[in-house]
Amino acid sequence: MRPLVTWLVVGALAAIGLFAVRDAVTRTTAAETQTATSPAPAQAAPVRPPAIAGRDRLVPRLEAIQAEGALYLTDARCRRFVLSLPALRWAPAGRQPTTDCGFWSRPSAAELGIAARQVNADTIVVTSGGWSYAFEGTSPAFQPDGTLTFVRRGRLFEWTARCPPDAQIVRFEEVHEVPRCVQPIAGAPRNLKEVSWLGDRRYAAIAGPDGAASVLVVDGRGQQRLFTGVGTRVGALESSPAGGYLAARLDGTLALFRAGSPGVRPLPTTDELVLGISWSPDDRLAAIATESRVQVFRVDRPQTAVVLPLSAAAIRWR
Questions:
Q1: CA 317, CA 239: separation in Å to the nearest integer?
Q2: Dihedral of the CA atoms 107, 111, 112, 117 (nearest 10)?
Q3: Per residue in 212-265, pLDDT tens?
Q4: In 3D, which of 71, 96, 55 has the Cα closest to residue 297?
Q5: CB proximity list for 133: less than 8 A, separation 6 or greater
Q6: Are the C-beta atoms of 134 and 119 separated by less than 8 Å?
Q7: Could you tell me if 115 and 126 are in contact, meaning their C-beta atoms sit under 8 angstroms apart?
Q8: What digits encode the pLDDT tens for the residues 260-295?
Q9: Which of 140, 122, 258, 259 is nearest to 195 (CA)?
Q10: CA distance 207 to 102
């Protein structure tokens, strides 16, 4: 409480006025004291990206292989950091996007502002702005022109704008209100499990029975088999931006393939499980992430990888 200044007051009226002022000051001071002593809301400590040991030595090696762009690295706590190449500089904290580490959170996005993700074992949700639509399917993937495709009961379908008169129409909002309908894609393999597009009408696929599924490349000329996993689980299909390479997991181990060339391609040597792979936009370089390192390498020379001492659960090259 702030002390009251005591004045020598003569007369009863002056004394009564003094008591009134004192009471008012006492109430105001108590309120101010309570506000001042209330604890301030706790502020979250800024998240800092990890230090990169040996940066001065690593930068010239990245420059030598012309590694350029940005790596989006997601750590085990679902925090994503942006690392510029070849300078190995982290983007400012305010520019770091967040990510979703859910098991079914393999998102796909097209340039038209629409995205799709598989949310459980047999449901896909399409979103655009505040609009969403759920339907039966797996393995959502976008063609280069933005057409959404998916697998349903072993067959490949697309959400097309070329709809026959009797088709059931769904209007995808915020994408110019284009009416869409589900139509099968002709020439697709049966018993299909996953798809990843390599070009306008060319795609990679995993198809076949469990325990004997194959990695295929499909185009207008037919199907080419790159690998068949006898007694092996094959899944988690991904393709490179320019469509020259693809990757799949064979019993959990990452395998790299060249589109159009049968057989498994070599990856940089590591004694850790490879958690993710991403390619440069021109397909010339790739990066793989393990529990304790990120390796950047020329796809045609994986033995000369540049090893970055960083931990990442997922990786994307932009």
A1: 13
A2: -10
A3: 999 999 998 899 999 999 999 999 999 999 999 999 999 989 999 999 899 999
A4: 71
A5: 125, 126, 170, 172
A6: yes
A7: yes
A8: 899 999 999 999 999 999 999 999 999 999 999 999
A9: 140
A10: 25
